[in-house]
Amino acid sequence: MDMPVNVPVDNPNADTEWNDILRKHGVIPEKPPSPTPIIEEALGEARRLAHENRLEGKDLDELDELEDEEDEEFLQKYRDQRLAELSTIAQASNYGHVYPLQKPDYSRDVTEASKQAFVVVHLTSSLGTNTESRVLTEIWRELAPKFGDVKFCEIRADLCIERYPEKNCPTILVYRNEEIVRQLVTLRELGGVKTTQKDIEALLVSISAISASDHRVLPKASDQQDQPRSSIRSGNKLDDDDDDDWE
Question: Which terminal Cβ of the chain has fewer Cβ within 10 Å, N or C?
Answer without folding.
Answer: N
